[in-house]
Amino acid sequence: IFSATRGRKATEFQETKKTCLNYIQDALLQHQWQRAAEFMTNYLETLENTSAEKRMAAPEVIWRIGTEILCHHSKSSIEEFNYFAERMKNLGVKTYLKVCLEHVFHLLCNGLIDDAYQNLSLAEGWRYGEQTTAQDKELKLIQAYKGLLDYYNWAKKRKAVLELDGNFANSVEQEMHSFFRQAAVNLKEIIKIPGVWDPFVKCYVDLLEFYEDYEEVRQVLSEYAYNSKFPPNPNAHVYYYQFLKRQGESKKTLMSVLKILHEIVPSHELMLEYNAMLQKSKKRKNHRLGLEIIFTLLDFAGWKEYVKAWSCLAKQIKQILENKHLDWVTEEWNSRKDWWPAFHFSHYLAKRNWQENESLACEKALVAGILLGKGNFKSSSLLCDTLVLVPLKLSFQKYYEEAAS
Q1: What is the Cα gyration radius of the chain?
Q2: Can you give the pLDDT at residue 377?
Q3: Cβ distance 363 to 307 under 8 Å?
Q4: What distance in Å separates the CA atoms of residue 110 and residue 103, rounded to the nearest whole number?
Q5: Which residues are CB-neighbours of 282 under 8 A, at least 6 positions away?
Q6: Which portions of the chain are predicted below pLDDT 50?
Q7: Could you tell me which of 159, 138, 136, 263 has the C-alpha nearest to residue 210?
Q8: Which pTM was predicted?
Q9: How far is CA 192 from CA 197, 198, 220, 277, in A?
Q10: Rounded to an integer, what distance in angstroms lies between the CA atom of residue 387 and that of residue 392?
Q11: What domain of life does the native source organism fall in (predicted)?
């Protein structure tokens, strides 16, 4: 009888806490922070749950929900958040380092750099038997963010050195070197692990470039961009390209980097640079590729009203037709003729472009004058309805007729 009664009470307790958690989640979804906080005071009893599994899971649930409430509650203070975070760190060793990181982020968001650094230093020295091995990745993140703050301090010292003279400047420079060594060690370690580490990579590269260790920069950025163990990351290729450009690398090398970036993100803003390089090349195949790239760029809505892109396309189509390569334009247009007219050249867009940006309207009219012209291209009256653009369309039509003949 006693066992049955105890089991029933345990079930009632768990059901009550489950219901309480549902109320908290509902309050969070509706941004009712005070209501969520009131339910939270009752939910804390789940730490006394008779189910060992639920009792072990409770600290992380309380930490995540409590953090959300304290971050948004109008009466919350940094002191209360600090107190809550310290209590959470002591509730469960499995989440200790995660809570530390969350605490540090909150301190950084509130401009408390020194407090954040102190917390990272304490967390870096944390050890708890087998849990240390299990949380190796979290520990490396702790060290990486500490390296990020070391970089921040290094950057401040660098600025100070440039503004000072004499012995005092030498003293500050020594401090700067100390921060450099600390930052470099931790930043280098984190970017060895496959992942997306953009902020850490950028800081590490800045450190290395300042001390003119260009070979190390090249190796780091090449590995970050091309190591197959790392997830695809457009920024990795951008960083490598920007570094090579600063180093004055050949156009051939730069284009090889941008070619891969194009395969990953064909709508990237650097595609305009890539297109310009291809057009300056003496190889005909590069001119053909440049046309494909600029057409592809304009397939994306974000480029619809970008004057420079339309200007590039208009100029390239003109040059290509003058050189009797009508088939290049035809090939690109055939895969777009069913949707580009409505996407780019509708009567509504023509009128709006003319009212808001005459340069854009003119460049688009020049392109449409060929793509929507007679002959091999599909006829259309979409732009003809906009009388102000008709002369522009007709004036550009001659390039098509000359090429066709």
Answers
A1: 31
A2: 41
A3: yes
A4: 11
A5: none
A6: 1-6, 8, 375-405
A7: 159
A8: 0.82
A9: 10, 12, 9, 33
A10: 10
A11: Eukaryota
